[in-house]
């Protein structure tokens, strides 16, 4: 990620999500005024969070020495240093050139970039009330700092001069692209406004930064505070592996005689799938889907209203009709109409499939004399019964062959075949980690032995760690200022198996594991010169990770790595056949819950916020769409962190579906090849055009170089087993 974007984009992600992988610099007023300036300066030099990464592998973060009391002074000092560098670039008396403006900006802010890495760890992996207090205080200061850069008129004039210069045409494709991105970041973030508008723009950003932090912390509070404890007589239907994990989770929370259902998807999902206690299923469902919506001090509804109002006001200053229009201008979709058009092509088939799925579930419930009407907390439970009845496929049976460590080895195998990477465990203690669960591997080229980087893995759920799964980098690969190798990281929230036993996960979780590893491979395979080339186009960067999920079900992975956790026997061929036969099972549920969130995201950001009461708006708009009452949004509005904890996915959550079109289409390229998913020629194009170029090339052009054409939505419909909609414009366009 570029150094300019480190200030703008990376901080927004850090504040919102802790990484997946913004701002007048405040004076150090927090330092005791009795200290002399010299003492203060010495304190900053001693601050480990500011120091260059030291040790092996080109230097690594000092996670073993990070102290929370160092964070605030480190941020303040790093912002001060960054602003000094920016002022030098802006006031350089030499004529503006690519080298003394764009490259100089790429080089600036190394201290701040390092501090952000530690900030992200506290935010996402080891949050605490003490950290959140710092986060609340520093968020508006970081926003003011970012604004001071984007509203630096001398700097913008120099950027603009390079962008409009004759020199631009002599630059490489990557250099032209990062020049355009730098100019565009300024223009889209208020650099062209008059002085009064700039002041208001800055004030809006500061308030939004505080609101994003508040939203995120409210959700985390509900995840930590609302744990459902059950007793031994309430374990009916739950798999042994889940029971052991729940027991361990309760013990770690000081309840040794109980079992803990934590308020995270990885705990909620299997409980709703297997528990025979309907009353408890309803309680766990309500607890999970009510995060941020409990009419208490952590309720997010008013926060959402204010966020939407401020976003709308801000883009109005820039001349845009709505926030989504501004957000999508530089994305593959280009505008909200195109994004919504894709949603609407898929939505009717998805809800029609849900109707079929519910009918199948209701039939089983009736046959069993359950005397119920399928409700949202029944969906997973009866879907599993349908799976067993229709496909003779038991998810818990499949889970016995999905060991976390074996799946990790499978991912390494795929990376070796496609990317020529080799993963070797790093000796414990050689590289500092921030928690004992974190393990590290060295990544090298299989043929030359060249060091590529490190891969960190933090797989398990714990208190203070945000829910979900994500990937990030602690250092990205660049060559413009000396070769920098990669420090990549994957983070999950699996429920750890009992002491001495492997961690078993669901098939959906296994897909997520591969998905996030796809992001890591995107980082590790990068072959770009400049930091800004790592800034992603949101509706494209999910494509590479979604694509990697496809290798989970290749024969090579199934036959080698899906072995029973007790016997070591490979998964039976007949069970594999059932898995593949049921590959589009429950696709109505999965597609509809996701798309409901994506559609609502676009509606929130194309509607006058003055008319929006979040709970009412969500309910009424979903009713208009014909949302099945047995399903809710994957992320209900009060805890929709992708959209309201920051701006990374705001008005852009549709991007997963946009990326799914690319994924389905790219998958067919492999299926059509002689060597299938391990075809060497297609694999080489995959690495060259879809992974290594990052954002150094326009994504649409990169995809065309890989596929020879644009992606087609028909591939997605085939992939999900949906009928392909008739394209009424096709005949007109071909005549």
Automatic annotation (TrEMBL):
EC number of this enzyme: 3.4.24.70
Gene Ontology cellular-component annotations: cytosol
Cofactor(s) this protein cannot do without: Zn(2+)
Record-linked Pfam families: Peptidase_M3 (PF01432), TOP_N (PF19310)
Tree of life domain: Bacteria
Single Gene Ontology MF annotation: metal ion binding
Signal peptide range: 1-21
Reaction(s) the record says it catalyses: Hydrolysis of oligopeptides, with broad specificity. Gly or Ala commonly occur as P1 or P1' residues, but more distant residues are also important, as is shown by the fact that Z-Gly-Pro-Gly-|-Gly-Pro-Ala is cleaved, but not Z-(Gly)(5)
Peptidase M3A/M3B catalytic domain mapped to chain residues: 271-720
Co-factor: note: Binds 1 zinc ion.
Key word Iron present: no
UniProt-listed InterPro entries: M3A_DCP, MetalloPept_cat_dom_sf, Neurolysin/TOP_dom2, Neurolysin/TOP_N, OpdA_N, Pept_M3A_M3B, Pept_M3A_M3B_dom
Alphabetical keyword list: Hydrolase, Metal-binding, Metalloprotease, Protease, Signal, Zinc
Oligopeptidase A N-terminal domain sequence ranges: 84-198
SUPFAM superfamilies (UniProt xref): Metalloproteases ('zincins'), catalytic domain
GO biological process: proteolysis
Entry similarity comment: Belongs to the peptidase M3 family.
Protein's UniProt name: oligopeptidase A
Native species: Alteromonas naphthalenivorans
């Amino acid at each position: 990620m570029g150094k300019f974007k480190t200030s703008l984009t990376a901080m927004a992600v850090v504040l919102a999500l802790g990484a997946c992988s913004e701002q007048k610099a405040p004076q150090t007023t927090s330092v005791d005024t009795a200290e002399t300036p010299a003492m203060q300066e010495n304190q900053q030099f001693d601050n480990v969070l500011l120091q260059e990464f030291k040790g092996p592998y080109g230097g690594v973060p000092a996670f073993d020495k990070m102290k929370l009391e160092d964070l605030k002074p480190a941020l303040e000092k790093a912002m001060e240093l960054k602003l000094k560098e920016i002022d030098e670039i802006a006031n350089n008396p030499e004529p503006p050139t690519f080298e003394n403006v764009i490259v100089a900006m790429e080089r600036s802010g190394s201290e701040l970039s390092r501090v952000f890495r530690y900030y992200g760890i506290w935010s996402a992996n080891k949050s605490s009330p003490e950290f959140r207090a710092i986060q609340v205080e520093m968020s508006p200061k970081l926003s003011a700092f970012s604004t001071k850069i984007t509203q630096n008129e001398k700097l913008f004039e120099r950027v603009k001069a390079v962008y409009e210069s004759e020199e631009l045409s002599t630059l490489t494709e990557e250099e032209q692209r990062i020049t355009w991105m730098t100019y565009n970041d300024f223009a889209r973030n208020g650099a062209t406004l008059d002085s009064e508008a700039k002041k208001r723009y800055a004030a809006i950003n500061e308030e939004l930064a505080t609101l994003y932090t508040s939203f995120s912390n409210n959700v985390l509070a509900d995840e930590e505070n609302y744990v459902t404890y059950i007793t031994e007589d309430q374990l009916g239907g739950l798999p042994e592996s889940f029971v052991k994990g729940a027991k361990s989770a309760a013990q770690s929370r000081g309840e040794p005689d109980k079992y803990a259902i934590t308020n995270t998807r990885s705990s909620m999902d299997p409980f709703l799938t297997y528990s025979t206690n309907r009353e408890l299923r309803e309680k766990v469902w309500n607890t999970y889907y009510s995060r941020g919506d409990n009419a208490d001090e952590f309720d997010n509804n008013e926060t959402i209203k204010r966020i939407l109002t401020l976003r709308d006001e801000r883009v109005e200053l820039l001349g845009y009709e709505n926030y989504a229009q501004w957000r999508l201008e530089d994305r593959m979709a280009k505008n909200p109409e195109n994004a919504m058009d894709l949603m609407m092509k898929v939505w009717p088939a998805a809800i029609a499939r849900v109707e079929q799925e519910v009918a199948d579930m209701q039939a089983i419930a009736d046959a069993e004399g359950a005397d119920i009407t399928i409700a949202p907390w029944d969906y997973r439970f009866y879907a599993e019964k349908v799976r067993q009845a229709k496909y003779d496929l038991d998810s818990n049976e499949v889970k016995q062959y999905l060991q976390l460590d074996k799946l990790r080895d499978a991912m390494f195998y795929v990376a070796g075949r496609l990317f020529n990477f080799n993963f070797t465990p790093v000796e414990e203690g050689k590289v500092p980690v921030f928690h004992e669960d974190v393990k590290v591997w060295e990544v090298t080229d299989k043929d030359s032995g060249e060091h590529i980087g490190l891969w960190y893995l933090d797989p398990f759920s714990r208190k203070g760690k945000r829910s979900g799964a994500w990937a990030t980098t602690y250092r990205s690969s660049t060559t413009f200022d000396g070769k920098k190798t990669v420090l990549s990281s994957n983070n999950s929230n699996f429920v750890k198996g009992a002491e001495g036993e492997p961690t078993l996960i669901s098939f959906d979780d296994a897909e997520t594991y591969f998905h996030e590893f796809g992001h890591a491979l995107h980082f590790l395979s990068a072959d770009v010169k400049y930091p800004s080339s790592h800034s992603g186009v949101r509706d494209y960067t999910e494509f590479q990770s979604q694509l990697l999920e496809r290798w989970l079900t290749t024969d090579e992975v199934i036959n080698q790595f899906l072995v029973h956790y007790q016997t070591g026997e490979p998964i039976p061929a007949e069970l594999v056949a059932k898995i593949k036969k049921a590959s589009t099972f429950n696709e109505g549920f999965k597609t509809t819950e996701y798309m409901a969130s994506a559609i609502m995201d676009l509606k929130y950001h194309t509607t006058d916020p003055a008319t929006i009461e979040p709970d009412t708006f969500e309910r009424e708009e979903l009713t208009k769409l014909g949302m099945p009452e047995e399903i809710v949004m994957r992320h209900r509005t009060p805890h929709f962190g992708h959209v309201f904890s920051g701006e990374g996915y705001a008005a852009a959550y549709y991007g997963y579906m946009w990326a799914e079109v690319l994924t389905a289409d790219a998958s067919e390229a492999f299926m059509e090849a002689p060597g299938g998913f391990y075809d060497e020629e297609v694999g080489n194009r995959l690495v060259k055009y879809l992974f290594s170029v990052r954002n150094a090339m326009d994504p649409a052009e990169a995809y065309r170089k890989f596929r020879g054409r644009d992606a087609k939505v028909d591939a997605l419909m085939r992939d999900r087993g949906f009928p392909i909609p008739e394209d009424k414009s096709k005949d007109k366009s071909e005549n």
